[in-house]
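Hello forum,

I keep getting stuck at the same step: I have a sequence, I want structure tokens, and every attempt I make locally crashes halfway through. Rather than fight my setup again tonight, could one of you with a working pipeline run this one for me? It's a single chain of 212 residues.
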Amino acid sequence: MDLEQIRRDYELGSLPREQLAASPHEQFALWLQQAIDAKLSADPTAMTIATVDAKGVPSQRVVLLKSNDSNGLRFFTNKNSHKARDLAVNPNISAHFSWLPLERQVQITGSVEPLSEQQNDAYFRSRPKASQIGALASNQSAPIASRELLDQQFEQLMQRYRDSEVPRPEHWGGYLIKPSQFEFWQGGRNRLHDRFTYTLADGQWAIERLQP
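Reply #2:
Ran it on my machine without issues. Output:
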């Protein structure tokens, strides 16, 4: 396979400056809704988040965006996981949305703060029971001897809480990503893509076009 020959041109659209919303949160909400409406994948809310540990080693993984507004973006995870341990020592984070069938990408840079216990409880209760049990059964990012052992732990907990409410694990909860910069990327012909950044300074968002 000759990977050098795998390419395509981007011809679906453009991103003129005058079409940008004044707020990056509004622009992001618009693109997110368009990605959802396009039914381009099973997971339009999937985002790749990058964290850095105490030694400066980066790590990436995919999580699901669960809400967003003018305050930021929220996701939930096991607080004992690799990413949560990274965020405990370095709260800086980067999130990336790849909607390539629409020839669009969004990159968000910022820092995180933990959500409240009330927010964690409310979202945990909204999850299907099997997902709640999964959060109890898995010690995320820790080694395990076999898949059979994991399934066994899950089934035991399903039986235990078959007729009762599943308690939210203390180590399970969410984060708010507080953005300091957004970059919106729209593919263009001849690799002349449209790229715009919104950068937060003194409480205001400054918009700048970047060369592709």
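The beta strands are 46-52, 58-64, 67-69, 72-78, 92-99, 104-114, 172-186, 194-201, 204-210. If your local run keeps crashing, start a new thread with the error log.
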